[in-house]
């Protein structure tokens, strides 16, 4: 397919066209021309005047529940929602059924990804069945194409497993990703421990459960070497610990879920299970520290943390509902809301930074380069509802709202996906 993107503001610091307004002509999946007032025939047009184009967005943490729980999400619906959200690449957690702890499991995603616009990058489990007891065959999984190693939604609770993983992964410069949580401190908890949880009469999950695990892992990292990535940090103490570790020269990176930059524990005060997530939304002080951490570079990556569920798992009493929500299509609107005029300063947190951490080649906006692009508007509004939602899950704190910030289209591997916002 030939495509002409007309009058887009290019956001790509590595490109000579950065911050310029240009037409981009794409032929057979390759950027053929970048210039002013291009005249081409037999090309589909995207009118991007007043809009932006960047390299394709990269989501470093999502769960498509496939295989095993396809009634909640599958690779098709998850990929559709990802494209509508602006993502050309998605890293999938290993917590499928079965867990991604074998070469065949890795191959399942690679086979799908081969023909899809969205590149799916499987994350392999650190431990068999993600139980934290016995290491997987990491070298074989890496050779098969696993981009990183993590037990996903489960923390690596066993200290010796964490230590051995750090040592083992150094053989091939592998990346260890851990969701920091001491489950003995969060057991039976449903939201952040604090004033709001007390008023609501719900058992809380203290932020110290997160910071203690970060302290443990940083000590192990300093002792064993290697590199570690903390996923879904949620507290001001976590930001401070990671900032200090980076200053010491430790090879540590981290990410934050996009919704943690917007919501706090008080948003759940009416027992809306669309605010039940793990780690929980914390206080306004924590939220502000996370925003500051993104702006000052302490937090390297912003992820969707897409963890979809069906109504049977969410339309329940708060203490019975599952953790997790549908977070893909609200990604851009939340960032526009939180960062406003500073939005352009954080685009690298979901374009170049995750690719750099994972060793994935960064696309280019250059003539002759493969076209891996996201076209979006910071100003257009749209309704997020059952009709526009492309995920199987309706469990989103943004559902049935008018949102500002719209993706128009994505292109990758010679394919184009246009949203209803392209008008």
Automatic annotation (TrEMBL):
Q: Which InterPro entries did the record assign?
A: DHOase, DHOase/Allantoinase_Hydrolase, DHOase_cat, Metal-dep_hydrolase_composite, Metal_Hydrolase
Q: Which UniProt keywords apply?
A: Pyrimidine biosynthesis
Q: Is Acyltransferase tagged as a keyword?
A: no
Gene Ontology annotations for the cellular component aspect, listed alphabetically: cytoplasm
Q: Where does the record place the Dihydroorotase catalytic domain?
A: 56-238
For biological process, the GO terms are:
purine nucleobase catabolic process; pyrimidine nucleotide biosynthetic process
Q: Name one GO molecular function term.
A: dihydroorotase activity
Q: Mind telling me which CDD domains this protein's record contains? A: DHOase_IIa
The membrane-spanning stretches of this chain are none
Q: What is this protein called?
A: Dihydroorotase
Q: Which organism is it from?
A: Roseivirga pacifica
């Amino acid at each position: 397919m030939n495509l002409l993107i007309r009058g887009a503001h290019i956001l790509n610091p590595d490109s000579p066209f950065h911050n310029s307004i240009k037409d981009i002509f794409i032929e057979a999946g390759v950027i053929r021309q970048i210039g002013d007032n291009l005249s081409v025939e037999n090309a589909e047009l995207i009118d991007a005047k007043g809009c932006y184009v960047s390299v394709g967005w990269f989501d470093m943490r999502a769960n498509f529940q496939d295989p095993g729980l396809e009634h909640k999400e599958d690779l098709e619906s998850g990929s559709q929602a990802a494209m509508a959200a602006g993502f050309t690449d998605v890293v999938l957690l290993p917590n499928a059924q079965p867990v991604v702890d074998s070469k065949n499991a890795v191959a399942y995603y690679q086979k799908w990804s081969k023909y899809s616009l969205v590149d799916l990058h499987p994350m392999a489990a650190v431990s068999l069945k993600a139980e934290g007891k016995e290491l997987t065959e990491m070298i074989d999984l890496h050779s098969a194409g696993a981009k990183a190693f993590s037990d996903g939604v489960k923390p690596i609770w066993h200290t010796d497993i964490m230590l051995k993983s750090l040592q083992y992964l150094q053989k091939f410069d592998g990346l260890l990703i851990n969701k920091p949580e001491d489950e003995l401190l969060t057991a039976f908890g449903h939201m952040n421990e604090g004033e709001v949880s007390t008023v609501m009469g719900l058992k809380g999950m203290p932020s110290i459960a997160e910071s203690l695990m970060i302290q443990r892992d940083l000590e192990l990292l300093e002792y064993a070497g290697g590199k570690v990535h903390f996923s879904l940090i949620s507290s001001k103490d976590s930001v401070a610990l990671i900032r200090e570790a980076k200053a010491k020269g430790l090879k540590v990176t981290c990410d934050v879920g996009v919704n943690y930059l917007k919501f706090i524990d008080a948003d759940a005060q009416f027992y809306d299970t669309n605010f039940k997530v793990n780690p929980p939304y914390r206080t306004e002080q924590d939220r502000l520290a996370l925003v500051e951490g993104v702006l000052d570079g302490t937090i390297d990556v912003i992820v969707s943390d897409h963890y979809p569920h069906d109504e049977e798992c969410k339309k329940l009493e708060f203490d019975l509902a599952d953790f997790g929500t549908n977070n893909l299509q609200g990604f851009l609107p939340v960032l526009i809301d939180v960062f406003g005029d500073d939005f352009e300063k954080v685009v690298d947190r979901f374009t170049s930074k995750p690719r750099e951490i994972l060793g994935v080649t960064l696309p280019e906006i250059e003539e002759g380069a493969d076209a891996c692009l996201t076209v979006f508007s910071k100003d257009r509004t749209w309704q997020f509802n059952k009709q526009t939602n492309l995920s199987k899950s309706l469990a989103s704190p943004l559902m049935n709202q008018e949102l500002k910030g719209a993706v128009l289209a994505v292109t990758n591997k010679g394919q184009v996906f246009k949203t209803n916002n392209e008008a």
